Amino acid sequence: MELQRYHLAGQAQFDGTTGSWAPGGDAGWTVKTVIRDPHRLEARVTLGEVLATGYSLVVTPQAHREAIHATYHGLDAQGFHVVLTARDGSLEDRVGFSFRLDGLTDTPTPDDRTLVKDHLVEDIHVVQSILAKKAQSGMITVMCSASINQDRVTEGRIARQREDLDRLYKELEQTQDPELRREIEAKITVGRRKMVRYEKLMRAAHYWDSAHEFGKLWGAYYAERQKSELGGRDVPICTGGGPGIMQAVANGAASQRAIVLGIDAIFGNEPRFALGPQHQHALDSNVRIRCNDFAIREAALINYANVVLFWPGGLGTSWEAFETLCKIQTGHLRRRRTKAIFVHTEFWRPLYDYVKHLREIGTVNAYGDRIKFPGLDDADADDAYVGEVVDSAQEAFEAARAFVERLHAENALSLY
Question: Which residue windows are transmembrane per the record (predicted)?
Fold first, then answer.
């Protein structure tokens, strides 16, 4: 566990006429009244960053310090309580407190608004150095969900979640304390939401199987035929290096003794190098790059790919899809050297409809900025489309392979 120092300083003014607090100082905390009477005001300060250890807290009253006494209690990883009392008589309508908290946290939230020059340069250098050795002729990248898993994995999560809910229901039956009951009921609500999501992900497990099949197809092509068919060149497969469908692709390709590239980024409290048991998915990528900056990671996955394939995913996959389409549209990636393929028509139909909507509004080109979709829009030349949709792993493999072989025939198969 990698601990980081955590400092937080703030102040809060209470307005007795409105019953509201006005917090100030550092961001990353909230304050809420717990008890209010003429002689005592108690508030709960909740931290945005959970502490691990090393708590140190100082609380002082603001304004009329000689008349107000400030103490705290209940300091824990999530926050603390502040109690303001009048030394003599009643509290005034306007009272307040200030505090300084020091501790250690193992869940540092990255400040993504800060661009660190050294991190950007380091990421670009590492990506280019490794790809120049392992993907000299370019690569194909698969973008996809980190949440959709093999059915047996999701079945296990559903079973564990059901056990947790059963335990919470029993605790609720045996608990009379109103506050504890509210806490248990809140946990049950969260558990039910998780169960609903896991059940949805279970219905999407066939996308994991499809991606695993594609990984095996491309892995076998890489290991057995590429060098002979591409004049001694090879084009490895690359993913975002994560779990879910990314792992399905990597595992499928690795099972065929193929090179598998994984380019990921540091998320939240993850250490950069000391990966733990929760990173078992990393083992399926035998060449791995971990970036400091999320945007550089995305650019590396897209910019150096001859073909970018999209399996079903969430907001991250959608971001990657639109970044790829925009780069092809604007010429940052040349259409004749980059292909975007979306796999599974039923999942990507809303994307087709949305791009069609943009064409009808006029915000994208009516001819050249289209998604090629079987049976709906597939009759024009390739320059009419920024991407195309296919319906299966086999179709995706055939389309990607044909494009790579065409680039080879045109002497255009390269990393840069």
Answer: none
